[in-house]
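During the reporting period the student researcher (J.K.) took over the structure-prediction task from the postdoctoral fellow and processed the backlog of single-chain submissions. One of the processed entries is reproduced below for the supervisory committee.
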Amino acid sequence: MDFWSDAPGPVALAGRPQRANGGGRNAGRAGREGVGVTAIEKCWLNTSTVAAMPTPPARPGRKPNARPTAQPDAKPRAKAVAKTAGKASAKATGKAAALPSARAKPSTQVGASKSTRAAARPSARTGASSSVAAAVPATARRGPGLPRTLSFDIGGTGLKASVLSKQGELLHKPVRIPTPYPLRPEQLVAALALIATGLPSYQRVSAGFPGMVRDGRVISAPHFVSPTGEGGKASVELEKAWSGFELQQALAAALGRPCKVANDADVQGAAIVKGEGLELVVTLGTGVGTALFWQGKLAPHLELAHHPLGKDGKTYNEVLGDAARKKVGSSKWNARVVTTLGILKALVFYDHCYIGGGSSSRVKVGLPPDVTLADNTAGIIGGIKLWERT
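J.K. obtained the following C-alpha cells:
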C-alpha cells in the first residue's frame, strides 16, 4: 500500500501503544532611614521656637532658682542644635538618596552583598535590559525551589507558558493563547511578555522555538514567514524580519531576566531523555521536530522536518504534520508514523526514540520496544533541563 499518497484509506493497525525576594530587607531599612530623616527634620524645625518659649513658672512652695535662666543662651543653643541636626539630616538624607541609586546601578563586584544584589534585581514587568539581567545571574539566587524558571513553548498554533520550581514542579497552570498571524518577531516578544505578567515571579527564562535556532538567534522560522502560518505562501518581508533575529536577547531585554532559546524539539527532548546512549526525540504537532542527545547532552540540531521523506519530494512536515493527518485520516497517518520510525532508525541508529508533541496522543499503533510515547507537557518542563543540558 502507498503510505505517502494523500488519498485517505483504512490501514490495519498492529495494536495500541504501550516567591522570596531580598527587597523586603532593603525596603525595611529604607523605611527606617526614611523615618529617621523625618524625625531629625522635625527637631531642626522646632529649634527655631526655642528662643520664644517662656520660662516655666516656679513650682508652688519652692523658691525661684537664683541662678540665671537659660533665656539669654537660648538662641546660641538653638543655633548649635540646628547646626548639629542639619548635619545629621543631610547625612541621613544622603543615605536615603543612595538607595535608589543602588537600584539604578547594580553592583557587578564579586563581593557584592546580598542586599545589593537584591536591590539590583530588575522587575520582570518593567522591560529591563539584558545587561541588567546579566549583572545579576540566576545562579546567585539560592533557596528552596529557586531559581524559578519561566518556560515558553512557542508553537505554530499556540503559545504556552508556565513557571517551574527548581525541582520541575508547575507553580501555575500552563497559560495558552492562540498564535497570532501574521507574526513579526517584535509581536511575538510582546505576546510572550504579556503572558508572563499573569504568572508567578521567576529568575530565568527558557523558550522553545519551532525552527532552527543557534546561540539564541533564529536561523529559520517556517511557521512564521507566512502571513497565514504553516503551509502558506512565504512573505519576503517576514522572511527578512525573522532571518537572524536575536530572539534570546530580545526576550532577556523585555523580561529583565537571563534567557535561553532553543529549538522546541530540543527543549522537549531535554525533559524526556534519560542520558543513555544516542537518544532521538520526535515531536508531532503542527509540524515535525527532531532532536538528538548523546549521553544526555544535546547534539547540534538537524532540521529533518524539511528533509524529503515521501514521494514527489514531500517533507516530514508535509507527510506527518497535522494538516496531513486531517487530510488522509488517522489510520493512514499512523502507518506513516511507523514507516518513518524505520527510516529514522536506519539514518541515525538511535538506542531509544521518544515521540512527543501535541499529536503524540493520536498515535494508536503498536510501537517497537525502543520507541516510547512522551507527555506533551515536556515542552514546558524542558525549560529547566535546557539550562542543564546545554
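The committee noted the following: The chain is about 40% helix and 15% strand.
J.K. will present the remaining backlog at the next meeting.
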